[in-house]
Every structure is written in structure tokens, then in C-alpha cells.
Amino acid sequence: MSEHIQLGDIRVEVQRKKNKHAHLYVYPPDGRVHISAPLHMGLDALRAFAISRLSWVKAQQRQMLAQPRETEREYLNRESHQVWGRRYLLEVIEVDAAPVVELKHSTLVLRVRPGSDEARREALLDAWYRQQLRAKLPALLDKWQAAMGVHVRRILVQRMKTRWGGCNPRTGNIRLNTELAKKPPECLEYILVHELLHLVEPTHNARFLALMDKFMPQWRQIKDELNRLPVRHEEWGHSVT
After folding, report:
1. How many CB atoms lie within 10 A of CB 100?
2. Measured on CA atoms in the order 116, 158, 27, 15, is the torsion positive or negative?
3. Quick one: average pLDDT of 51-58?
4. What is the chain's alpha carbon radius of gyration, rounded to the nearest angstrom?
5. Exposed, middle or buried, 214 (CB in 10 Å: 0-12/13-18/19+)?
6. Fewer C-beta neighbours within 10 Å, C or N terminus of the chain?
7. Neighbours of 55 (CB within 10 A)
8. pLDDT at 233
9. How far apart are CA 12 and CA 211, in angstroms?
10. Residue 38 has pLDDT above 80, yes or no
């Protein structure tokens, strides 16, 4: 049976897990609130826990609702697209050959077969962004795994609607959002460092924050930059701390 707590007009969903402590999350796009709660923790205690963090919840919700969104993409000529934080104008060329995506000066060239529809163009660009992100990962992994003394088992690069990244400390797997290939390179590095640290400390506790400060002292500035950048039309913000 699903559980929830009502705090005025804020509904807090409760999910039971084998946690030692309760963890509170605010998810985009509309600031949905979720608690991952230990099996033994009663609803009254969870209510007190949520109330103690209510001002933080409201601040996160305001931030999510205020974050700019990209206009909806139609994948037409002269449309603006971002690659590693730089703006490029899309040039669509129809040619009877295998599809190709390439950067030329200030232009993102998309060569497609005649009659390719919007969905096909979108899929080709999504796959290209995924390749761009994967190409940057080996050097970053060499740098940060050695620095932290950790080893990631597998990295999955995929489109994610509510998160920039995720880590499963139990399996050693990390997920990264394809959309990071549109943001400045330091944003990808920040998210990767954040997720790698979860292999050392699974929660966002004081130890985790101290480790972030140790390995990447400027992480808060990068996080703020990522929060200010426009996000995909149907996608909002991030849920990492």
C-alpha cells in the first residue's frame, strides 16, 4: 500500500526501503516530493523529518519552476542547438546516403535521407549527443577513479527526464543523462564526480559534502551554473545535491 504525508498543499510520497536513515528528494518538473524511508520509521517521525526540511523543499520547488526551458525542437534549418555549452545553428541536408552529424564552425550539420521526419532527425541527434558524451568519459574516468580510489563497473548514457545522473553503489553502475553533452564540459565532470563519490558514500550526508569539497572545491559554482542553464522542453533540472 502506498503511503504519503500531507503538509498543507504539499504531498510527500513515502517509499519504504532497507535504509538506515530517511532521505528526502524533490523531483522536477513540478517539485514532486519523495521520502525514501527506513522500514521501521513511523509516519509521525517522517512528518517531523519532512517539516524540518520544509523551507528547503519550497526553495527547490521555486528553483525548478523558475528554471528556463528550451523551446520545443522541430529539427529544421536555422534552429538553435547547444553542443558543450556553445550555440550552433542546425543545417539539414537531404542526401541519399547514410545519415551523418558533424560540427562545422558555428553550424551543426545533419545529413539525412530524403523524407526523414522529425522523429528520425531527433533520434539521429540524440544518438550523436550520446557518442559525444561517451568520447569524453575515458579521460575523465582515468583522472577521477585514480584520484578517488574507486572503480565504476559500468556507465550507462541515456536520456533521463528527471536526473542528470544516478549511481547504484551496490552494483557499481552509474547513469549519465545524454543532455549533459549540451552543457559546458565542466558540468559533465561535476556530475561524474558526484556519482563516483556515491561509490564511497551512498548518501548526501556531511561526509559526502566534505569529500565533494575536497575533490572539487568549485562544485557549488558549477551546480549553480547547471541550474541556470535552459533544460530540454519536456525536462527539468536535476535531482542530485
Report:
1. 13
2. positive
3. 91
4. 20
5. exposed
6. N
7. 9
8. 45
9. 29
10. yes
Whether the Cβ atoms of residue 10 and residue 42 lie closer than 8 Å to each other: no
Mean pLDDT estimate for the chain: 89
The amino acid sitting at 217 is P
Characterize 146-167 residue by residue with b for buried, 16 or more Cβ atoms within 10 angstroms of its Cβ, and e for exposed: eebebebeebebeebebbbbbb
Is the bond leading into 29 cis (omega within 30 degrees of zero)?
yes
Cis before 169? omega within 30: no
At residue 140, what are phi and psi to the nearest 5 degrees? -65, -40
Reduce the DSSP state of residue 20 to 3 states and report it: coil
CA distance 16 to 237: 25
Q: Judge whether residue 241 has pLDDT over 50.
A: no
The owner of cell 527506513 is 38
DSSP secondary structure code for residue 160 in this structure:
-
Q: What is the dihedral angle through the alpha carbons of 157, 233, 223, 160, rounded to the nearest 10 degrees?
A: -30
Q: What is the pLDDT of residue 238?
A: 40
Measured N-to-C along each axis, helices 185-197 and 118-148 cross at an angle, to the nearest 10 degrees, of 60
d(CA 211, CA 148): 9
Amino acid at 137: L
Per-residue pLDDT of 70-103, as tens digits, reads: 667 889 999 999 999 999 999 999 999 999 999 9
Confidence at residue 70, expressed as pLDDT on a 0 to 100 scale: 66
